[in-house]
Amino acid sequence: NAGVTQTPKFQVLKTGQSMTLQCAQDMNHEYMSWYRQDPGMGLRLIHYSVGAGITDQGEVPNGYNVSRSTTEDFPLRLLSAAPSQTSVYFCASTKSVPSGANVLTFGAGSRLTVL
Amino acid sequence: KQEVTQIPAALSVPEGENLVLNCSFTDSAIYNLQWFRQDPGKGLTSLLLIQSSQREQTSGRLNASLDKSSGRSTLYIAASQPGDSATYLCAGGGGATNKLIFGTGTLLAVQP
In this predicted model, what pLDDT tens digit does every residue of A86-106 receive, in sequence order? Predict the structure, then answer.
């Protein structure tokens, strides 16, 4: 089925380790984004991209890097994981930008624990 | 800066009851207002989207309204069922900022 695919679903890291959360969509969506969800904080935007080669920061970008080399993929990199990055991460995409009639489609999430 | 608030944080109702979930936002210059459902351990599923030029949208037993002048949106669920139990989130923004801001959600429990 078409949609947004995130891998891995679960990951445990030690402080200082690096890793990449993968996100891929097969709907030819131009807009892709990463959110983190923490109890009592709601979903907060980390980074987003309005097309291949274009990325921008959201509300909480520190400690995360992104790139967008293709329309389909939008990986999120943690260069040196910290316990404060323990969270559930969601990738979401939409046709162009999240306005008008463009509905965000979410992946199933990646649960990250940093010890 | 857009801020989105949802009240109440949790709600428990008996099956069959009609209910209203509230969402308020601070910046009336939103491009759309979206309502999502999230089941435990799952991603978000879009329920309804109201564009800034619209006042309401309906899908089955769900009706969402948008009042930009008061900075409020409501999600009305008719004849609630146990299967409606989930967390409901609203999100506003988008447009030139490309940033959709989420509320913290309302955890709904429908008791059989």
Answer: 999 999 998 876 666 778 899
Helices (H), A1-56: none
CB < 8 Å to A99, chain B: 31-32, 94-95, 98
Q: What is the block-wise mean pLDDT of chain B (112 residues), using blocks of 10 residues?
A: 88 96 87 91 91 91 93 96 96 72 94 95
C-alpha of A13 from chain center? 17
State both tokens at A88: 């559930």
User: How far apart are the C-alpha atoms of A89 and A102, rounded to whole Å?
Assistant: 21
Q: How far apart are CA B49 and CA B85, in angstroms?
A: 20
Mean pLDDT of chain A: 93
Q: For residue A40, which residues of chain B lie inside 8 Å, CB to CB?
A: 104
Using alpha carbons only, what angle is made at residue A109 by residues A45 and A111, rounded to the nearest 5 degrees? 95
d(CA A72, CA A87): 24
